[in-house]
Design a protein that fits this description.
2 domains, Rossmann fold, Ribose5P_isomerase_type_A, globular, alpha/beta, four-stranded antiparallel sheet, binds ribose-5-phosphate
Length: about 220
């Protein structure tokens, strides 16, 4: 099976978590795009969506799915999103597409976070995928120096601006033995808006697609 077929398979499986009348929290990325397309088939049964990026909002609206502001609807029953990596505790690295801050907000405002991914995303320890950090533009050099002190090699994602008007530093080479501690430590750097570790609020369920089918994983 191709990577896209695996993404489509896991996206379809996530429909099981969508109930009639729901406002669904929707993440960002290529796997979520398949989920949005699947959601469109049952759009008459849901009330609408809250989205974590302009890109996902555009795709949802193109399918005729109403998109609400998070402020207008309050807590959500479920949030469906992809990841760049997951460890067995369902701590994630996210933000490969730069949507990490809004993703973290919508995930935090949701009762259940269902992560959808293909089997290549499950790792024993996070850190192979460079960790995205969203930074206020004027703080870029300061934050980069602090990230070096934490043992990482920050690389500015040039020509990229987040939906919030900020920059991304992708941090290579981090040893992530303590995802929660590192998430807090990076958040403590002045000028950091958010980092792509989802360890303080990990996923509740990971749906993982392989050629054999979709595995449902809960935290180890
Ligand atoms: O900012 C992007 C998000 O965190 C994505 O959910 C993540 O990068 C995974 O994306 P994809 O499904 O395209 O691998």
């Amino acid at each position: 099976m191709t990577q896209d077929e695996l993404k489509q398979r896991v996206a379809e499986a996530a429909l099981e978590y969508v109930e009639d009348g729901m406002i669904v929290g929707v993440g960002t990325g290529s796997t979520v795009n398949f989920f949005i397309d699947a959601l469109a088939r049952i759009k008459g049964r849901i009330d609408g969506a809250v989205s974590s990026s302009e890109a996902s909002s555009t795709r949802l609206r193109a399918h005729g799915i109403p998109v609400y502001e998070l402020n207008a609807v309050g807590p959500l029953p479920v949030y469906i999103d992809g990841a760049d990596e997951s460890d067995p505790q369902l701590c994630l690295t996210k933000g490969g597409g730069g949507a990490l801050t809004r993703e973290k907000i919508v995930a935090a405002a949701s009762e259940r976070f269902v992560c959808i991914a293909d089997a290549s995303k499950l790792v024993e320890r996070l850190g192979r995928f460079p960790l995205p950090v969203e930074v206020i533009p004027m703080a870029r050099s300061h934050v980069a120096r602090q990230l070096l002190k934490l043992g990482g090699q920050p690389v500015w994602r040039e020509q990229f601006v987040t939906d919030n008007g900020n920059l991304i530093l992708d941090v290579h080479g981090l040893q992530i033995d303590d995802p929660r501690g590192l998430e807090r430590a990076i958040n403590d750097i002045a000028g950091v808006v958010c980092n792509g570790l989802f360890a303080l609020r990990p996923a509740d369920v990971l749906l993982l697609a392989s050629a054999e089918g979709v595995r449902r994983i809960t935290p180890a």
